[in-house]
Structure of Alpha-1,6-mannosyl-glycoprotein 2-beta-N-acetylglucosaminyltransferase:
Amino acid sequence: MRMFRMRRFVRFTFMVALIMFVLLNLLILFSVQTDISNGSSKLNSLNTFAHRHKDNRFHMQDSETNSIASVENQLWILPHMANGTYYEPMNVSGENLTHIKHEIEKINSRQFIHNLDKFGLKLNTESVVIIIQVHDRGEYLKILLNSLRKVANIEKSLLIISHDIYSNELNQLVLSVEFCPVMQIFFPHSLQLHPKEFPGEHPNDCPRNIKKEEAVQMKCNNANSPDKYGHYREARYCQTKHHWIWKLHHTFENVKVMKNYPGLILLLEEDYYVTPDVISVLQMMHNIMKKDCKDCTMLAAGNYDKSQNYGQNSGKVEVANWISSKHNMGMSFTVDLWREIKRCVKEFCLFDDYNWDWTLQHLSSQCINQQIKVLKMKATRVFHMGECGVHHKGKNCQPANKEKTVEKEIESNKQHLFPNTISIGSYSGLKLRDPKPNGGWGDSRDHQLCHSFIQNTTVH
């Protein structure tokens, strides 16, 4: 009898231990589940995720390598500790150009995405990748980043910040972004890196206003390349156009996570401010474009109207021919338009205008197969904050005051943001014309540098 009780006790103990073992393993299994798409899909492990989503692209990131398994039209990166390795740009003296060049090469090559461990990344046809072109106005960039922090679903977007200056201050601003995945890229042909040589200003470059005959006599470097108005290049103006075409090429052609990306990119500049519904509005505009404006290839989230009527126009768009002075703020498009721009790169690089947007209008008029047609928001989702810069040399630059004015307007119209529907409200009768070039882009060295960004790639 005693032996029988002992056997029962052993069996009972064994069963309890077995149940505890099973429960412990279940607990461990569920603890590694990751919340995908706001909790709508639970996956048990990285291996299970990779197996179940073998038709997607999967990405793991560490401090030295990026590993991407690529399948067309989708990228899905899990939030995971393996993506959390921290990378901080070096604090480098602005005078140490050798170190800056090395650091820029390293950053552009590594393509590190901050905050992947926190948010992961899912890129598909519904996504919006935001690209900000940044110069040196840190105060404006800080304001723009603060506005992006308030944007609904910003954590699902990839933010790419494209610099033409390596600055410890700007780097720290970017590192302060905790609300979405963010990547830095650096324009490698900047004036900062070439202060006394092209594409900066060489000591023997021709002065802007010298006559060509004098330039030839003094044998300055670009004597035979004045613009159509007889003026010689000014490096600070040429840099912006170079940077604009380079960042698009680098993003679409070289950034690994953007390979086969079918969704929208949104182009911003450092002195913009966006509304909290800018992403959702763009996604709705994109759907309208595919359904009701199939010959449209551009979206414009912003406009320059002096007065905004959100009550009447919050969910209304206008169909128009793309005109640079009206539709260049908050531009958004897909790789399809990029391929058209890329195909016309020779025309882009030779057009004697230092403005990228004026040049793009020329392409639309003379080169792109179908002229660029745009859907423009009638109530702006992007504000231009800049009162000082390349074209605005105001003496009283107070971006904080401008920020308060814009925030007040957004607050007073918050009930009109996030419209339930977007519809076409009007059609513009303005005809696209080939713009008269403004000059500033006659130097053959600029033509060659511009073309070099793209000439070694294949249009696909």
User: Anything to note?
Assistant: The chain has 16 helices and 18 strands. The chain has one domain: 97-195+225-452. Residues 339 and 365 are 16 Å apart (CA to CA). Residues 28-60, 62-70 have pLDDT under 50 and may be disordered.
